[in-house]
Design goal:
alpha/beta, Chitinase A, domain 3
Amino acid sequence: MLKELSDDLYPKGMKLYVSVQARNEEYDYAAIASHVDGVVLMNYDEHYPSPGNTGPRGLHKTVSRNLKAASKVIPKDKLISAIGNYGYDWVYKPKHGPLPPGVKDTNVTVQDAWLAARDSEADVDFDGDSSTPTSVTWTNTICSHDIWFLDAVPRSTRCALPSPWVFQTFALWRLGSEDRSLWRIWDIPGEPVQKTN
């Protein structure tokens, strides 16, 4: 399918990029890369909404391990590391009774995470192992919450991965949910990060 699609697009001056999961044995990464201009490695969601799966969005060592595995079969000029720029709000059921209808784990923007921490008066802690901010669990009248998200600081460390992880292009999932100070990092590499809320 990718070959047919690329054969249709290239004569029209168009390019083809494909997003793939990291370290998924069902993908033939080399074959995919041979028919596209870029392979976008979805290098995030080490933890995602599911029972007992709360935690950081992506550990630095996992991001590096994923890139190392992918670079063995995907040419570096086609390998694009995608960065998740949102968070997850894990909801825990109350001590007594089930969760109310419609209350469930959700995706949140970075702004949502900061606002939730402010509104609940919960501190936002920094997890040293993952270089990831997490707002500590807080409880409202209905249930408990635990938010893990990525702001610009851990993403800047991911963008500054040491050699041989030098990329010309990163992808961002998804626009509108990011910490806006990330754009300063990407627009002017090497400049100090100034946090904005």
